[in-house]
Amino acid sequence: MKFIEVEMEQWARKKHYEHYSKHVRCSYSLTVEIDISGLLTGLKAKGRKAYPAQIYMLSAVANQFQEFRMSTNEEKRLGYWDVINPMYTVLNRETETFSAIWTKYDSCFHRFYRACLEDATQYANGVLFPQDNLPPNIFNISSIPWLDFTAFNLNVPSQDNYLLPIFTIGKYRKEKGKTLMPLAIQCHHAVCDGLHVGRFIDALRYMAVNWDEWL
């Protein structure tokens, strides 16, 4: 992994970053629906589980766009990671608590899928962070498969300047023969605007529709 510092004086977003990180500290969230009808059909045909595939899709798209890899290093210098890895929640049904597990991102779905299943099997013990030495280049994904929502917000104090995105997946719903997956996205306005979220959603929807290109 590599952290690339932003040349602040040369950065087009300098004023935007300063405004939304110092003066009007602002994060925002929005919820969209992703049509995963074809994807679920493909997963069923190939005997694959949906959650690892969803984690892969979010990871693949997040790694396409610099705005979703922005962070600060130990010296509080702004920059972006060359690659980010997903940390995702897995429920322990006996204790009804969850573990937050991370898996190294791999652009090959098949390798990532296997690694994700292995990590989930090994570490889903209900301990919040069961793995040692968490890397700094991780972003968060959680799933609430019991609840279909149209809006969702996490109250992360904006003064902490947590810049990486947070994704929350909800319970599917059926509409006119389609299966729709609610997805909440939380971003920091200092590094990510609606334009960038729109690009992210377009790329994610492309992956969902064209699942046969990578599944």
UniProtKB/TrEMBL annotation:
Protein name stated in the entry: Chloramphenicol O-acetyltransferase type A
Active site positions: 189
Superkingdom, natural source: Bacteria
UniProt cross-references to Gene3D superfamilies, sorted A to Z: Chloramphenicol acetyltransferase-like domain
The keyword Transferase is assigned to this record: yes
Organism: Desulfitobacterium chlororespirans DSM 11544
Species lineage: Bacteria, Bacillati, Bacillota, Clostridia, Eubacteriales
Matching InterPro entries: CAT-like_dom_sf (IPR023213), Cmp_AcTrfase (IPR001707)
UniProt GO molecular function: chloramphenicol O-acetyltransferase activity
